[in-house]
Structure formats: structure tokens, C-alpha cells
Design goal:
The protein has about 130 residues and is mainly alpha-helical. It starts with a helix and ends in a 12-residue tail after the last helix.
Length: about 130
């Protein structure tokens, strides 16, 4: 990697660490705002990361064809790019929920409905 690309990568990594720390301390509304932007399938961090890995797939394919990079690397990046793309699309379906939570005004009443915890439901994808 060239020095400018290394510096850029280091900077992005530090900023992601800072964002993660900020998210871990965020309340529900601010967490939803952060996640809404991060998980956006086109313009968010996940979407841009997916595009970056896809670009890496094309680059490694070219280099794998010339024998400079093992073909296994190209195939692994291709699988990763496909997985990231699928995950971004799955999460994009829930952008409306993040948007609704992010735009809510702070609850001014402490009614039982407003403060009652709800059960978490985990839904997994079976492969």
C-alpha cells in the first residue's frame, strides 16, 4: 500500500473506533440516528464498505489472473462482497424503524406504556 493509502486507512480505522465508542454511550434516539447513517445500504458506512470490498474483488481478480495473488483470495473476497451486500439489503429493510426512533421527541411522560420493557425477538437467517 502506498503511504497516502496507509494513512487514509489508519484514519478511517481510528474514526470507526471513535464512532463505536460514541455509539456505546448513546441513548436510544442518538443510537438510532447513528445506526441509520451507518447501516444505509447506499451511502452509509456498511454500503461504502460493501462497495470497497467489491472493488477489492475486481482488483484481486485481475491480479489472480496474472498469478500475483492466489485465486483463493479472489474467491474469498467475492464471497465476502456478496455477504456484505446481502446483509446491507437485509438491514436496509429496517431503515424506517431507525428513522422513526431517531425523529421521536423525548418522551415527556413516564406512563407505564412508555417505560415498559418489551421482549426481544431474535430472528435468524437459516442457511
Amino acid at each position: 500500500m502506498t503511504p497516502p493509502a496507509t494513512a487514509l486507512t489508519d484514519s478511517i480505522t481510528r474514526q470507526l473506533d471513535q464512532l463505536s465508542a460514541h455509539l456505546s454511550q448513546a441513548g436510544p434516539q442518538q443510537a438510532a440516528q447513528i445506526l441509520q447513517q451507518v447501516l444505509d445500504a447506499e451511502n452509509g458506512v456498511l454500503g461504502r464498505l460493501s462497495a470497497l470490498v467489491d472493488t477489492g474483488t475486481h482488483v484481486t481478480k485481475h491480479h489472480a489472473q496474472s498469478g500475483a495473488i492466489p485465486a483463493e483470495m479472489w474467491l474469498a473476497l467475492g464471497r465476502t462482497a456478496n455477504t456484505l451486500h446481502d446483509l446491507a439489503l437485509d438491514l436496509d429493510e429496517h431503515q424506517g424503524v431507525f428513522e422513526e426512533i431517531a425523529s421521536r421527541r423525548a418522551l415527556t411522560t413516564s406512563s407505564p406504556v412508555a417505560t415498559q420493557a418489551t421482549a426481544l425477538v431474535a430472528r435468524g437467517r437459516h442457511r
